Amino acid sequence: MYAVVGATGNTGRAVVKELKGLGENPLCVVRDADKAREVLGADTKTAIAELDDRAGMEKALAGCKRVFIVTGHNPKSDVQQINVIDAAKAAGAEYIVKVSGGRDVIGPDVESVNGQAHYKIEEHLKKSGLQWCILSPGLFMQNIMGQAANIKNDGKIIQPWPKDLPVALIDVRDTGALGARVLREPGKHNGKLYSFSGVSTTFGEFAKVIGETIGKPLTYVEITLEQAEAGMKSRNMPDWLVAHLVSIARAGGKGAFSHENTQPIRDIVGRAPITTKQFAQDFKGAFS
Ligand SMILES: NC(=O)c1ccc[n+]([C@@H]2O[C@H](COP(=O)([O-])OP(=O)(O)OC[C@H]3O[C@@H](n4cnc5c(N)ncnc54)[C@H](OP(=O)(O)O)[C@@H]3O)[C@@H](O)[C@H]2O)c1
């Protein structure tokens, strides 16, 4: 049986949708049954478990041979995902697919706590004795949803990312499509790490595409990291999240998310990655 941990998130729900489309009925491990029904559908098989709860997670994953793990940013994400890996192993799992971060922001000494956590989790997974596959998607197109109010109300995108910097964005639906296929074929993907993205663009271009789609030209406002940090703090965002987002934008400015690699989507999913134009069309309602 397949399980998806983090099934109600951006990527998790895309994985579940793809698995269902491929004829599977995965077990969705969630913490909120009402949210699961709302975003995954009432017919979805669910088990409730907190990421930190070892006994609960082991019980939830009983009988699941193949487990997909994607959880959110969180200062405890290393402890949480390592807990899920150990619980899955104890519950009889054989193969784990983990969503990680961009390669340039992962390591024991990187600035981002989240990047340090991914490094620890990856190392733990590789030594777990289980079969594994690590997915390293580009920067999510869906991050732009955080700008939806600016776009709707003021016709602006305001970010600490250079307007003309190449960025290799990916639609989370592509990660879902790739992830579901990788989960179904451990024999083919065991021990592999896939870095993948859509076709490279720039935030200036992305703003233009969204503006054309909603019929309202957008202004791209590039702010400094210091301005972004002050803005996030004034909105009472937690310090660790502000630090993480600043570190990602800093690394991004140095090209950490500029490497285009569309081949894994082409090879594993069998089609081209979703374009920014398609993304803008599909989520037009959020911006207008
Ligand atoms: N954003 C990017 O551009 C980007 C790029 C590359 C890689 N990544 C990586 O992608 C991952 C984030 O993916 P995402 O955006 O799909 O995540 P997400 O939307 O934040 O979803 C996180 C999932 O984890 C669940 N969760 C969180 N805390 C939990 C807890 N204590 N117990 C049980 N479940 C819990 C959430 O449940 P609820 O729905 O109940 O909250 C949700 O299902 C991160 O590892 C990040 O480093 C992100």
Note down, in words, how this protein is organized.
By secondary structure, the chain is an alpha/beta fold. It has a domain at 2-137 and 172-197 and 259-273: Rossmann fold, CATH 3.40.50. 47% of the residues lie in helices and 17% in strands. The chain contains 14 helices and 13 strands. The chain has a seven-stranded parallel β-sheet, with helices on both faces. Strands 7-10 form a two-stranded parallel ribbon. β1 (2-5), α1 and β2 form a beta-alpha-beta unit. The longest helix is centred in the C-terminal third of the chain and has 15 residues, at 239-253. Residues 6-12, 31-32, 35, 50-51, 70-73, 99, 101-102, 114, 137, 139-140, 143 line the site of NADP nicotinamide-adenine-dinucleotide phosphate (NAP).
Write the layout of secondary structure elements.
Blueprint: E1 2-5, H1 10-21, E2 27-30, H2 33-40, E3 45-48, H3 54-60, E4 66-69, H4 77-90, E5 95-99, H5 113-126, E6 131-137, E7 139-140, H6 148-154, E8 156-159, E9 166-167, E10 169-170, H7 172-184, H8 186-189, E11 192-196, E12 201-202, H9 203-214, E13 219-222, H10 225-234, H11 239-253, H12 263-269, H13 276-282, H14 284-287
Helix pairs in contact: 1-7, 3-4, 4-5, 7-12, 9-13, 10-11
The structure holds NADP nicotinamide-adenine-dinucleotide phosphate.
NADP nicotinamide-adenine-dinucleotide phosphate binds at residues 6-12, 31-32, 35, 50-51, 70-73, 99, 101-102, 114, 137, 139-140, 143.
